[in-house]
Amino acid sequence: MVLGGPGGSELHPGGGAAGAGSKRVPPGGTLPLSRAQGPKPVTTAAIVVIGNEILSAKVTDENGPFLARELRTLGVELRRIETVPDEIPLIIDALRRCLASARWVFTSGGIGPTHDDVTISAIAEAFGRRVVLDEGTSKLLRARYGDKLNAARMRLAEVPEGAKVEFHEGYVFPVISLENVTILPGVPSLLREGFTRIRERFRVAPIFTRALYFTLGEGALAEHLDATVARFPSVGIGSYPRFDDADHRVKVTFDGRDEGEVRSAASFLRERVPAGTIIREE
To answer: So what's the pLDDT on residue 172?
Structure first.
């Protein structure tokens, strides 16, 4: 089984698809930095979830949400998640879009020993590389399986030519990367284990967040949200309505790299709305 970490090359940061809900992000696409604080390290990521089983609803995707939460904790802005079947042309297509919209790309799934495990081949083709056998992984497989090592199991040693293969003490499989693409397995427990081993290399300036919960609907809040966005261009503001029996009608979030600006934006909106319309603040 193979998975990956960054190879160190930086492509095109920024860009990408818009998020769900009524997200109000200032022009530029990513969370802007406070001018008062000066530039801080910022990075972006995209995820390609690969597997027919996800698209057919045979299996519920756990890997995309896990990576999204982890990257958020590390201060990495997730620009897009794409889910594609086990088909090389569609994997390559998704990879190209993701590489154009984020610095780091993480793939999930399609790296086992069976006929539908085509992720390694797709990534190699996307970069114009051959698929080769990694010597270190091959030795590990020979030691583990002995005379039971067949062609299918040997596929676990396949990597794109030029890939970086990292072994860590106490683990039986390596971490593999090509350029800025991290190749992760589809089995959730293995993906979590592999990502945990490399997660700290992606840490950058944190994203601070606040949330207000309102009894008001979006129609009543819109003018106040617009005023807040105009007043605090360095803060990403999102509005998320509910139409069920929740205790609130709208959740408004405030995200930014400057904690003081995030808190000030929340206070600014709080002071504009009628008293008693905020249920709670987080």
So the answer is: 75
> What's the rounded Cα separation, in Å, for the pair 58 and 77?
29
Contact indicator for 111, 183 with CB cutoff of 8 Å? yes
3-state helix, strand, coil in the chain (%, to 5): 35, 25, 40
The answer, yes or no, to whether residue 105 has pLDDT greater than 80, is yes
Angle, CA of 55, 156 and 116, to the nearest 5°:
30
CB-based burial, 43-67: b 16+ in 10 Å, e otherwise? bbbbbbbbbebbeeeeeebbbbebb
Q: What is the CA radius of gyration of the chain?
A: 22
CATH of 22-202, one of 3.40.980.10, 3.30.70.890, 3.40.50.970, 3.40.920.10: 3.40.980.10
- Relative to beta strand 250-256, strand 236-241 is antiparallel
State the DSSP H helix or E strand holding residue 240, giving kind and residue range, or none if neither: strand 236-241
CA distance 1 to 10: 26
pLDDT tens digits, 167-217: 887 777 788 899 999 999 999 999 999 999 999 999 999 999 999 999 999
What is the pLDDT at residue 270?
A: 97
Q: In this predicted structure, what is the pLDDT of residue 174?
A: 82
The whole-model pTM stands at 0.81
| All structural domains of the chain with their residue ranges | 22-202, 208-281
Query: In the chain, what percentage of residues exceed pLDDT 70?
Result: 85
Q: According to CATH, what is the number of the domain 208-281? A: 3.30.70.2860
Query: Tokens 């009524």 label which residue?
Result: 22
* CA neighbours closer than 13 Å in the CB half-sphere of residue 197: 22
Q: Please name the residue ranges forming H helices in the chain.
A: 52-55, 63-73, 88-101, 119-126, 135-145, 151-154, 188-198, 218-231, 259-272
What pLDDT sits at residue 34? 39
